[in-house]
Amino acid sequence: MPGAAAATRPPKRPRSSAYDRGRLPGRADRRRNRGPTRRVPPLMIRIATPADLDAIVQLHTEARATYYRGHLPEEEYAGAAEVGRSRGGWSRAIDRPDATVLCAERDGTLVGVAAFAVRDGVMHLTQLHVSPSHWRTGIGTELHTACVDAWRQAGVDSTQLEVFVHNTRAQSFYADRGWTPDPDHPRAGTHLILRLTVS
What we know:
Elements: H1 2-8, H2 17-20, H3 27-32, E1 43-47, H4 53-68, H5 80-95, E2 99-106, E3 109-119, E4 122-130, H6 139-153, E5 158-164, H7 168-176, E6 180-181, E7 187-188, E8 191-197
């Protein structure tokens, strides 16, 4: 009998205030059932020491391969001679009193590195690399911010860098942070020259 069936049917659930605010009912329950949220260990940025040299060279070599591969012969960015040259450059930068090398470390592992120094009276960001396995986790942004903070404290008005012409990922990263082509010398060989006004 239709009336009896209707009497045993549960009443319709009214729309909740959460639904009215644009959130679907039950979303909080779904969030609770996802399990524990993944904790991202804090990032520590510090001055590099000679003990960091091996890890820095390895990270640098891995990062360079991502944008030089397909554009340069492998021996020019990952060959033994080039890695040795890179190691010597990093070693000198760590020891130089007029240069700064910053390490980004997470859970005791080097995940990013940056270096800057004055050349010909102009501050240069000479290196900024993040381990490819840690891309898009904010490490590059934090390293860049640490560099800019150091420049401001030192009274630096503007800085310069060079970026490989085919490294569009890096070019986009720098453009998002205010770097623009150098109006006087926009290019040097296979690299674009960018400038940043530090304010």
